[in-house]
Amino acid sequence: GDSVTQMEGPVTLSEEAFLTINCTYTATGYPSLFWYVQYPGEGLQLLLKATKADDKGSNKGFEATYRKETTSFHLEKGSVQVSDSAVYFCALSHQGAQKLVFGQGTRLTINP
Amino acid sequence: DTGVSQDPRHKITKRGQNVTFRCDPISEHNRLYWYRQTLGQGPEFLTYFQNEAQLEKSRLLSDRFSAERPKGSFSTLEIQRTEQGDSAMYLCASSLGGGASDTQYFGPGTRLTVL
Prior knowledge:
- The complex is a heterodimer.
- By secondary structure, chain A is mainly beta.
- Chain A is 0% helix and 50% strand.
- Chain A has no helices and 12 strands.
- In chain A, the strands form 3 sheets. In chain A, strands 2, 5, 6, 10, 11 and 12 form a 6-stranded mixed sheet that branches. Chain A has a 4-stranded antiparallel sheet with strand order 3-9-8-7, with no helix packed on it.
- Chain A starts with a strand and ends with a strand.
- In chain B, the strands form 2 sheets. In chain B, strands 2, 4, 5, 6, 9, 10 and 11 form a 7-stranded mixed sheet that branches.
- Chain B is an all-beta fold.
- Chain B has strands spanning 5-7, 10-13, 19-24, 31-37, 44-50, 53-57, 65-68, 75-79, 88-95, 105-106, 110-114.
- Helices cover 0% and strands 49% of the residues of chain B.
- Chain B contains no helices and 11 strands.
- The relative contact order of chain B is 0.33.
- At the A-B interface, β6, β10 and β11 of A face β4, β5, β9 and β10 of B.
């Protein structure tokens, strides 16, 4: 079945550091790919998405590119802020049911 | 747009009791999803509705679990004879239902603790 594997956390960085959170997936066909974020005490929010190979999703300075050849959707940000501290989830969905299959999440802490 | 709401936010119950959770989706959304999230894990799909029809159920949804969406608006998730293993965060999400890239909007969740 479909699955998503994320880089294990927790990840701790200093403010203004470069961030990469790795995400790879196993799926049949051509899923859509998502990054969701969960800030402390809040619900899951969509951060960005990409629907086909080579698409780049971007939002709030975060980017991720849909790489079909490596089945990856790594999340990057050039300069992180303390306010980026949260848990990040990579996910995929298929046409039809569109249920989301999530990775296990990566907890990110940014120190000032 | 008030977002997806869930009630209650927290529920503590004793093993063997029945519990019911409610989800109110965003008003124009046709699809409604239930997920379960345990500590340190990503959410896992339980079931989803297209309007009032329940179209898919996960194998995670044992016979003790039942979900309804009687008028295609709010939904309820009932767990009968709760077990300690049912302790988790139960998340509801809704979407317009327009394709694989359709965005699901999540509620704040109901945290269930079974003693």
